[in-house]
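Supplementary Data S3. Sequence and structure tokens for construct A.
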Amino acid sequence: MIKVVAALIEKEDKVLIAKRSTGDPNVLGKWEFPGGKVELNEDEIHAIEREILEEFELEIKVKKFIVNNVCEYPTKIVDLRLYSCDYVSGEFKLHDHSEIAWVNKNELLNYELAQADIPLAEYVIEMKTNSKIK
């Protein structure tokens, strides 16, 4: 099983997603919460901050773990772990993605998301809905 971390970065009630342009054919051309693989002996918080710096040249600060989804792709099993993160600094530069989008949470499922990201998006939408009730 491959452990992958993803960042939920919010701005003005919108969340950041990115369209994958390199790497695994299972996610190529699909939208995802930005992130990447956790290296051997690396903790998840360090991994997500490192991946966002490598892929977007942005500095972020992890706030907390939100939810995970174990997804079976044809060639591997991925444990995708979503963390709430704050933007700290940097200007977007895309290295592994063709575009980014700031999306209203309730519109996340209108994008062609990577299979592992769909349950995470559903959870984020549900969090938003439940927070309005409280």
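Construct B, processed identically:
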Amino acid sequence: MKIVLTVLLSLVFTIGAVYKGSADQVLTDGLLYDENDHFLTAGDALSADLVRIMLRECSGSADIKGSYILATDDRVLFAGGINAVDTFGNNVDAYTTYEIGSLTKAFTATAILQLCERGRLSLDDTLDRYFPGYEYSREITLRQLLHMRSGLRTDFVRDDTFLDENGDRDTDEFKRYYYDGFDDAELLSLLFSDPPQYRPGTRFLYSNAGYTLLAMIIEQVTGETYAQYIQKNIFDVCGMEHSSSMTTGDVTSIPEFVPGAPDEDPYELVDTLYMQLIKAMRGAGDIHSCAADILLFDRALMNGQLINETSLAEMLDTRSGYGCGWKQFGRYTDAWYHGGQTYFYMAYNLMCKTEKYGHLYLIQLHPTLAGDQYSNTCMEQIVRNVMQ
């Protein structure tokens, strides 16, 4: 089994390196199992400190569950999974698929920037070009949507959206929304029924709905579905063979229910244990992926295979409080990350520019909402080490 997994790791990262040329293969030579047979780790002195951090942080609590990868552009330093099994009864690993929640936003932003480079749209376009019926559409630009400066609220619905005349929740209508019974016209009607919460461009306000609007714009501009565009222009380019968009039923990790978190109400409506609210999270939180595939995306993004340098600079410009699917990590101007959360999953994606390692990537995917503090501590320890 260990030999097979080592071969698989070598294969996927070699395949994923095709975008850099067939002669430039990503090496996994020298990876060894840790003493508990959980993780493959690099055995060289250069990465020893980072491997020690990962082993320490990944074994600090039984609450730590899921899949991990730490890598550079040409090497995997740490990979594997712990304290969880997949739908096949095997220990989770770098290929186990999860709901990645808001990590999706980096993919949507990449697609918008690609279309901008191709002259299909402009970041200075206002929403009236795409949604002319909204009273405030001339005040909101695509750039503001990307950087979370549109003023639009977080989600299509408000807390009081599905209340009946008695002030109680209209369960039937909520179920129709939750199980994607609403079409785009209904979603837009819900969002555009109110003015922006803040004047566009004046302040940061995190908005899932804003990124779903970007997904709708991708569909208008290309004539393809969001899922088709992402598959052809990102997944296929990167060699992400274990990823999907706008799909249910393909997650191979098994979620662990945590009572009381975040809110028990939705659980009564989830009969598959997985997110059903796909349409309303399109472009904002719909993608399913694995740690190995996310690494391929990160590498392609940072090395000019998906967008050019100008677009990448726009994407990683966090001076306004938010980049395009990325946030600055703490005080470190050369470290960016994003988290993702669905009802049952947590995900983190971290990228750093370092002198010692070049680009460094850390992906953490969890089938539970417990143990989140350890993920943040792990990122902090890694970034502090490489940014010294």
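Confidence is low (pLDDT under 50) at residues 1-28. The CA atoms of residues 70 and 362 lie 5 Å apart.
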